[in-house]
Design goal:
The strands form 4 sheets. This protein has a 7-stranded mixed beta sheet with strand order 6-5-14-15-16-13-17, sandwiched between helices. The protein has a 5-stranded parallel beta sheet with strand order 8-2-1-12-18. The protein has a 3-stranded antiparallel beta sheet with strand order 3-7-4. It is globular, with a radius of gyration of 20 Å. The two termini are 21 Å apart. It is an alpha/beta fold. 51% of the residues are buried. Bound molecules: flavin-adenine dinucleotide. Flavin-adenine dinucleotide (FAD) binds next to α1, β3, α8 and α9.
Length: 365
Amino acid sequence: MRTVIVGGGLVGLTTAASLGLIGHEVTVLEQAPAVRAAGAGIGLWPNALREFDRIGIGAAVRALGNGIDTWFHDAAGRPIRADGYDASDHRFLLVPRPALNIVLADAVGRDRIRLDAHVSGYTEDGPEVVVHLADGAELRADLLIGADGVHSRVRAQLAPGSEAAPHAGHYAWRALVPAGDERPGGTVLTVGRDRTRGGYARVSDGQTMWMVNQFEAGPLTGGKRDRALDRARNLAEAGWHDDLLRMIADTPEEAILENQIMFVPPLQRWTGERVALIGDAAHGLSPHISAGGTLGVEDAGVLRASLDAEPDTAKALLRYEAARIARFEEVREHSAAVELAADAAEFAQRYAAFSHWMLTTAPAV
Ligand SMILES: Cc1cc2nc3c(=O)[nH]c(=O)nc-3n(C[C@H](O)[C@H](O)[C@H](O)COP(=O)(O)OP(=O)(O)OC[C@H]3O[C@@H](n4cnc5c(N)ncnc54)[C@H](O)[C@@H]3O)c2cc1C
């Protein structure tokens, strides 16, 4: 089967490696000039690591990252424990994104990844899909996968009217910085005042990631560092997190990533007869549950298993779509519940409920 994957991000590359396992002849089309990943560190839960084990890179990915304990504190530094949940519901592997994508690209095979390849659309021609590139080139495939992120071209064609929308007022700031100024343990996560969450986490021996998110960030004034610092003060009552404030103040402006959070609306369909959406292209949602990428890697496992079990591609895609739409209805409910939590204690409780649910119901594929 000739399979073209649009997008060489986390999920596109994982899907390429996963479908390679079942004999697909895969081509990844990535618009960027290099395999790279915007972002600092990404938390990968065990359900994602299982798919990485399958494609043979589990050990390499674990060696890149650091196990993080995601229990929270309130803004005054009091630890919050969610009743009824234990450490396994709170542990993920934090991995530097650029290094992760390099491991993935090597697993796919560099000769299977075409860079500077911007996809402008596709047409269906009998049993084939013709993929159109912005430079006028065309590629014929038996299966087209849109792993092209929240602003997906493939989704625009498959599900017209499904443009991603800004999650009003919701912003995230983060940066990778040299480790050194943190408390022992290297990871502190805080749910603060005014719907702000953040802290820092040790990504690897020498690197720490700080992050600040706010749901209703209000008007943004000043540079990125000042904007992040203004919000980080909501996490730093009475000296708790002076270390975070120092870390942000010392970060060069150009090293700070700032995102307006975008939402992909719930879709009626993720697939056509020979086209499928995967990852953020299908379900981009808020990062406050730290699991969008993990769930995209899960998508890849379910797609692989569906195509492996069902020889009729259209039926296999429907099987994949049914399983993933049902799973994401629940993800969206959990995500909204965490977002609407009244205070730090409720946030921590609902976050634990989400991670416990995600881990205990993850598909065994
Ligand atoms: C602040 C923040 C923190 C997060 N933290 C976590 C976390 O801790 N854990 C977690 O699991 N998830 C996390 N997420 C979510 C996670 O980052 C995303 O779900 C994940 O990166 C999606 O991967 P993707 O490959 O689907 O899309 P993307 O990473 O967006 O990749 C899409 C790729 O497609 C390419 N592309 C787009 N259009 C075209 C085109 N027309 N032609 C060719 N190529 C194209 C792009 O260049 C890009 O390389 C976080 C998100 C944010 C914003």
